[in-house]
Specification:
binds pyridoxal-5'-phosphate; alpha/beta; three-stranded parallel β-sheet; 13 helices; about 375 residues; globular; about 40% helix; four-stranded mixed β-sheet
């Protein structure tokens, strides 16, 4: 079976972990600051804070920009559920707006129309690694928290790396991501005040100069261990290769699926560059997705529906009264999207096997 994802880990990661184990300092040790500094340098950010997951990063970033009980945050319904959940953690309301049918990112016009007097922030997502139209969102003068969990390696239209702007951007390091620490995340940001608040709140609300059991604000345990940071440093060293591997596989898929009836991920346009994370195709209308996934499995290919619309998940229907028909572009795309196997070490033969299977079972 060709799996959906597979991390690239080797001797460098093994050595890095063993070093930390032997040092005896498994958390809050030197690897934390080293990983943050190296990551910030990599994406051109002024500050970076490592956290235990992308979700934790989104939560702390929203708190840092001042999102509170009763606020509204405009965001996309076509994302992994964590981007909306993080808003709900603070008892704020995710106000969804429809997506652009080509980039699949939050549509700037729809987002503008969803802004009200209660809107505290905007939370665009760089879905499938393609940069959201950040300059369009910046024009509103509202705080932005960017969900870049899928977008390491991407670049905005002006050529600067995703994560390098002044607003907080959150990355994720789960095992299927471009860079993995097993579980983990990173917030990049331009503001020293944001960094100070994030660092305190990820560590039980403790200021850096405080004693172990002294806490001057509410906080969480969202720390990333030195073991994970050491893996992250080793992964950063090989990030160029990892990204190049993904781009190579994406190009092979494009070639193998050219002329097929499935809709491929949009090409980079206007200077925007995707940080390749997943290869998601949309099936033609009228082709059953569940049966396609089953038929692919029978041919030795793992795939999954990716992503379901957030507003139609049971929690969001019940808590916020969402129904079908509210965001037609998102709902149409979400109903037809399938993630195919995608990882840097995929061979040409594996890509060909997936493409042949998909062409055979989706009638295209
Ligand atoms: C768009 C998006 N947001 C948030 C997250 C959450 O990241 P994590 O799983 O590290 O909490 C993910 C991870 O899959 C994601 O893809």
């Amino acid at each position: 079976m060709i799996p959906l994802a597979r991390p690239v880990l080797g001797e460098a990661e093994e050595r890095a972990v063993i070093e930390v184990l032997r040092s005896g300092q498994l958390s809050l040790g030197p690897r934390l600051a080293e990983f943050e500094t190296a990551f910030a340098a990599r994406v051109g950010a002024r500050h970076a804070s490592a956290v235990s997951s992308g979700t934790a990063g989104l939560h702390l970033a929203l708190r840092a920009v001042g999102v509170e009980d009763g606020d509204e945050v405009v965001t996309t319904p076509f994302s992994f559920v964590a981007s909306a959940n993080a808003i709900v953690f603070e008892r704020a309301t995710p106000v969804f707006a429809d997506i652009d049918p080509v980039t699949l990112n939050l549509d700037p016009d729809a987002a503008a129309a969803a802004i009200t007097g209660r809107t505290k922030a905007l939370l665009p997502v760089d879905i499938f690694g393609y940069p959201a139209d950040i300059p369009a969102f910046e024009r509103h003068g509202l705080p932005i928290v960017e969900d870049a969990c899928e977008a390491l390696g991407g670049r905005y239209a002006d050529g600067t790396p995703i994560g390098s702007r002044s607003h907080p951007a959150t990355f994720a390091f789960y095992a299927n991501k471009q860079l993995t620490t097993g579980e983990g995340g990173m917030i990049t940001m331009g503001s020293a005040e944001h960094k100070e608040r994030v660092d305190s709140e990820r560590n039980q609300g403790r200021a850096p100069n405080m004693d172990w059991l002294d806490h001057d604000r509410l906080g969480f345990n969202y720390r990333l261990s030195d073991i994970a940071c050491a893996i992250g440093l080793a992964q950063l060293d090989r990030l160029d290769d990892l990204l190049a591997g993904r781009a190579r596989v994406a190009a092979l898929y494009r070639e193998a699926l050219a002329g097929s009836a499935v809709t491929l991920p949009c090409e980079d346009t206007g200077g925007n560059e995707r940080g390749w994370f997943v290869f998601v195709v949309q099936l033609p209308h009228g082709i059953g997705r569940d049966s396609t996934i089953e038929a692919l499995r029978a041919r030795g290919v793992q795939s999954k529906p990716y992503l379901p619309a957030i507003h139609l998940m049971s929690y969001y229907r019940e808590a916020f009264g969402h129904r079908e028909g509210e965001f037609p572009v998102c709902e149409d795309v979400a109903a037809r999207s399938v993630a195919l196997p995608f990882f840097p070490q995929m061979t040409e033969g594996q890509v060909a096997q997936v493409a042949e299977a998909l062409t055979a079972v989706s009638g295209s």
